[in-house]
């Protein structure tokens, strides 16, 4: 298809920031924190559902 626009490197946004550098170690640590937080939230959601069921069954 000839109608497609061709992107030159000057038209595309930068994937990275020129002002900030993040080390691979820092990136990995942040990913681990994020994964841990997601797990805590899902555990909390599960516990809340279980608690709701136990409250409903009492009444």
What would you call the structural class?
mainly alpha
Number of DSSP E strands: 0
The stretches of 5 or more residues where confidence is low (pLDDT under 50) are none
Separation of the first and last Cα atoms: 66 Å
Average pLDDT reading? 78
Tally of DSSP helical segments: 1
SSE pattern, N- to C-terminal: H
Report on this structure.
The structure is a single chain. This protein is mainly alpha-helical and 59 residues long. The chain is 59% helix and 0% strand. It has one helix spanning 24-58. The longest helix has 35 residues, at 24-58. It is rod-shaped, with a radius of gyration of 23 Å. The model has no long low-confidence stretch (mean pLDDT 78).
Topology of this protein?
Elements: H1 24-58
Question: Which features characterize this protein?
Answer:
single chain; 59 residues; 59% helix
What would a concise description of this structure say?
The protein is an all-alpha fold and 59 residues long. Helices cover 59% and strands 0% of the residues.
């Amino acid at each position: 298809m000839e109608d497609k626009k061709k992107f030159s490197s000057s038209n595309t946004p930068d994937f990275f920031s020129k002002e900030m550098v993040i080390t691979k170690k820092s990136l990995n640590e942040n990913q681990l924190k994020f994964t841990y937080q997601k797990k805590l939230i899902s555990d909390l959601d599960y516990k809340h559902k279980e608690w709701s069921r136990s409250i409903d069954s009492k009444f």
